[in-house]
């Protein structure tokens, strides 16, 4: 990063240009950093294990009490820079149509490896080639809400720290392990099976009704691509196929909605048995 100055007025400032480069996922991956916007996500980041490296806030909205409280917390962290900027600077960096007045650069959260994630829970999600960022973010948010211990994104899926995924996840990325895999998910499936887990494949038809599946055992719920479904190489693994019967002439549910049905069926069954999801 370029040297920090006290106040930035120009969108062409070197630091601003450097931060704006994080709009590209290639840069986010290489730097292991991403951008968040708004007070809510900044609060989530500060409550997590993530390092907030830089905060740019619009000086015109600096009187907001919540913002001032968060900036006060951040000021106590010696590795964070807080810089007031003009509205034009925020607008030039923001990836939303209505910039909230605050942009922060955050380092990727520390992620445990695949084995550690599986060992920490008995319910997880494998999202196979999910390409819509809204779907990916909703799956992550729903998985956390249902008590799952992690979400895995297969190769070919959207980048989890893309801006639209971050906004759709509504802070869950700061709390729930979300790991991009280097393959289609075969290694994860093999590992889960070796550990005695059940694989539950969400399929549009020819599966058993979702509520007949026993979710009281460790389960990896597998959700498929929005148009082509689950990769055939994954469907070759032993497991149970779950279908959600529809009562109207609708081709299928949105993948995030289907994931929510299965995840909260697991919640229902486990609560009925007096279990707590880890």
Describe this entry's structure for a reader.
The protein is an alpha/beta fold and 278 residues long. The protein folds into two domains: 14-107, 60s Ribosomal Protein L30, Chain: A (2-Layer Sandwich), CATH 3.30.1330.30; 114-272, SPOUT methyltransferase, trefoil knot domain (Alpha/beta knot), CATH 3.40.1280. 35% of the residues lie in helices and 18% in strands. The protein is built from eleven helices and eleven strands. The chain has helices spanning 14-20, 25-31, 39-46, 65-75, 87-93, 114-119, 133-145, 163-169, 186-194, 232-235, 255-272, and strands at 33-37, 52-58, 81-85, 102-107, 123-127, 151-153, 178-180, 198-202, 208-209, 219-223, 240-243. The strands form two sheets. A seven-stranded parallel beta sheet has the order 7-6-5-10-8-11-9. A four-stranded mixed beta sheet has the order 1-4-2-3. The relative contact order is 0.13.
Provide keyphrases for this structure.
278 residues; alpha/beta; Alpha/beta knot; seven-stranded parallel sheet; four-stranded mixed sheet; 11 helices
What order do the helices and strands come in, and which of them pair?
Elements: H1 14-20, H2 25-31, E1 33-37, H3 39-46, E2 52-58, H4 65-75, E3 81-85, H5 87-93, E4 102-107, H6 114-119, E5 123-127, H7 133-145, E6 151-153, H8 163-169, E7 178-180, H9 186-194, E8 198-202, E9 208-209, E10 219-223, H10 232-235, E11 240-243, H11 255-272
Parallel strand pairs: 2-3, 5-6, 5-10, 6-7, 8-10, 8-11, 9-11
Antiparallel strand pairs: 1-4, 2-4
Helix pairs in contact: 3-4, 7-8, 7-11
């Amino acid at each position: 990063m370029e040297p920090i100055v006290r106040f930035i007025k120009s969108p062409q400032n070197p630091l601003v240009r450097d931060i704006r480069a994080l709009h590209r996922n290639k840069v986010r991956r290489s730097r292991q950093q991403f951008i968040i916007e708004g007070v809510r996500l900044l609060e989530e980041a500060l409550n997590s294990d993530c390092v907030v490296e830089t905060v740019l806030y619009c000086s015109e909205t600096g009187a907001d009490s919540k913002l001032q409280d968060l900036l006060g917390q951040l000021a106590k962290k010696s590795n964070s820079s807080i810089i007031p900027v003009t509205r034009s600077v925020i607008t030039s960096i923001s990836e939303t149509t209505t910039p909230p007045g605050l942009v922060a650069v955050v380092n990727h959260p520390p992620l445990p490896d695949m084995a550690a994630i599986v060992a920490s829970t008995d319910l997880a999600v494998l999202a196979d080639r999910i390409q819509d960022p809204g779907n990916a973010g909703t799956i992550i948010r729903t998985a956390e809400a249902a008590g799952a211990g992690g979400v895995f994104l297969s190769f070919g899926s959207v980048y989890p720290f893309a801006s639209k995924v971050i906004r759709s996840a509504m802070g869950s990325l700061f709390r729930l392990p979300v790991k991009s895999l280097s393959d289609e998910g075969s290694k994860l499936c093999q590992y889960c099976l070796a550990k005695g887990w059940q694989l539950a494949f969400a399929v549009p038809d020819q599966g058993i009704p979702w509520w007949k599946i026993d979710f009281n055992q460790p389960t990896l719920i597998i959700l498929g691509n929005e148009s082509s479904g689950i990769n055939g190489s994954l469907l070759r693994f032993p497991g149970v196929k779950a279908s959600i019967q529809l009562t109207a002439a609708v081709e299928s549910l949105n993948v995030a909605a289907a994931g929510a049905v299965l995840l909260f069926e697991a919640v229902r069954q486990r609560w009925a048995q007096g279990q707590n999801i880890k």
